[in-house]
Amino acid sequence: MVSFLDRVFHLKDKGTNVKTEIVAGITTFATMAYILAVNANILGAAGLDEGAVFVATALASVIGTIAMGLLANLPFAVAPGMGLNAFFAFTVVIGMCFSPQFALAAVLTEGIIFIVLSKTGIRTKLFNSIPLTLKYAVGGGIGLFILFIGAQNAGIVTDSYATMVQIGDFASAPVALALVGSIITIILLVKKVKGALLLGIVATWLLGMLAQLIGWYEVNAAVGAYSLVPNAIVDTPPSLAPTFGIAFQGFADVFTDASTVVSFLTVTFAFLFVDIFDTIGTLAGVASKANMFDKHGKLERADDALFADAIATSVGAVLGTSTATTYIESAAGVMEGGRTGLTSIVVAIGFALSLLFSPIFLTIPGFATATALIAVGILMMEPIKNIKFDELDELAPMVITVIAMPLFYSISDGLFFGILAFIVAKAAARKFTEISPLMWCLGAVYILKIAMDIFL
Predict the structure, then answer these.
(1) Which helix (H) or strand (E) holds 295?
(2) How far apart are CA 150 and CA 5, in angstroms?
(3) What is the pLDDT, as a whole number, of residue 253?
């Protein structure tokens, strides 16, 4: 069996082994399993059946991640994306008053366009056109973004009317447990313990159960504080029928009048734009940490990775969920040594099992998985050491990219501000040969987007 897996995934060539890949896959799944419950909740607010969305989310993740593992042989996971699901529910359906079927039709159209762009190599050219400096910066930016998300999930960072963000309540059980769990995780990493991230998640979860039993952690579903103790081990998956295939019904709503067609095209483009550059940014960031770039800054089989993402989006729309994308939480598995598609296959198995063992997977609290996100965020800052800090035309784009991602809460916006900064800095330094034609085009596209946001 081991020799078979080695032949399929080239484990020895990538400097890894079956045990490492399995631990990496389990770790990645544990850090992103939250999407099963969160996506169902968000799309449920748009009027879709939450049980069906849960199943659609799991199946889309299984299909997309298997495609990533087998086609691209990369340790990345694919699932319905955060942010894109909120845009689906709160902007398109609730804000613009379109039906969920209409929104799913837009996602399906976007997915089909993605497949065409991926197979023609256009997306890969976009990915490869980004300079190595920015790819390193994206890695650091995503690291800071992941750390911020983890701190939010744990309640370490909370909203503030006056200052936008503020420190959380350390007397709160979730905040305190997340801090303790993060310390445990970092100590394990420093000691180079295999499976440190997964062990940190499990340890924090167990401490949470103890806190619940002694009454420190109080269960209150109204504020999102659910029981940390599973009430069952196995359960029958909900029915997919309420959402399966309704995307095709949505096309009937598109051609009612000219303004609806324009709205449909606008919504489709919005999904397309954000997903393309979120995925490109994620691939660049995680791959830079795993040293997967060649000397020219290109990622091997990037076209297959982007194709897997496109497949997941298209299939997910038919099943009944929002746009799928490559997950930044894949960095958790990469930190554990995951280097091949076997890591992705393990993640896919985790999503498949979640359909049967949903009571367990859905009980892992956000403050437990936050420990892994915080640790990964710290570790992902490492690639920026490769940037020439003594050259301002290299330093300025890096700093702007790294800071913009968490501040704008967007990988794609952070990437584009970095691109604009890169063009300006290199032009000021009269290093025009370092700005590729495609980079000029990307800069122009983003300026056009900003103009449209202002005037339309």
Answers:
(1) none
(2) 33
(3) 81
- Pair type for strands 78-80 and 157-160: unpaired
For 283, phi then psi, to 5°, come to: -60, -45
User: CA–CA separation, 336 vs 286, rounded Å?
Assistant: 12
User: Residue 146 contacts by C-beta under 8 Å, 6 or more apart in sequence?
Assistant: 328, 329, 331, 373, 374, 376, 377, 380
CA-based nearest residue to 40, from 328, 240, 221, 327: 240
DSSP-derived letter for residue 231 is S
* Residues 124/306, Cβ–Cβ less than 8 Å: yes
> In this predicted structure, what is the pLDDT of residue 456?
61
In this prediction, residue 55 carries a pLDDT of: 94
| DSSP-assigned letter for residue 216 | S
Q: Which of 411, 421, 333 is nearest to 373 (CA)?
A: 333
Spatial separation of the C-alpha atoms in residues 223 and 25, rounded to whole Å? 31
Q: What token pair was written down for 51?
A: 């049980």
Tokens of 395: 């330093």
The pLDDT assigned to 272 comes to: 81
CA distance 445 to 370: 35
Rg for the chain, CA atoms, rounded: 21
CA gap 49, 200 in Å, rounded = 34
Give the residues of the chain that fall short of pLDDT 70. Answer: 83, 123, 295-296, 456
* Beta-strand pair 164-167/78-80: unpaired
> 């359960």: which residue's tokens?
235
Could you tell me the residue ranges of all domains in the chain?
14-386, 388-456
| CB within 8 Å of 433: residues ≥ 6 apart | none
Query: How much is the pLDDT for 177?
Result: 96
